[in-house]
């Protein structure tokens, strides 16, 4: 579980940095970050199943 939380934290930092870099509206950043995390989890599940 620790590795999973560390990965989520790293992804969250990277996504927020990219959103700020490209001028994404600050009030929508949290929702966008959450969406990316959800998508990453789905991809990881698909990779594990193969």
Q: What is the β-strand count?
A: 0
Radius of gyration: 12 Å
Q: Level of helix content?
A: over 70%
- State the domain count: 1
- Give the oligomeric state: single chain
End-to-end distance, in Å?
21 Å
Shape: elongated
- How much strand content do the residues show? under 5%
Question: How would you summarize the topology of this molecule?
Answer:
Layout: H1 2-21, H2 29-49
Report on this structure.
With 50 residues, this protein is an all-alpha fold. The chain has one domain. Helices cover 82% and strands 0% of the residues. It has helices at residues 2-21, 29-49. Helix 1 (2-21) crosses helix 2. The longest helix has 21 residues, at 29-49. The protein is elongated, with a radius of gyration of 12 Å.
Keywords:
single chain; 50 residues; mainly alpha; 2 helices; 82% helix; elongated
Quick structural summary:
The chain has 50 residues and is mainly alpha-helical. Helices cover 82% and strands 0% of the residues. The chain is built from two helices and no strands.
């Amino acid at each position: 579980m620790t590795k999973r939380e560390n990965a989520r934290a790293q992804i969250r930092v990277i996504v927020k940095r990219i959103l700020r870099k490209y001028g994404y509206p600050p009030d929508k950043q949290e929702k966008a970050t959450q969406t990316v995390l959800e998508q990453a989890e789905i991809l990881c599940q698909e990779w594990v199943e193969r």
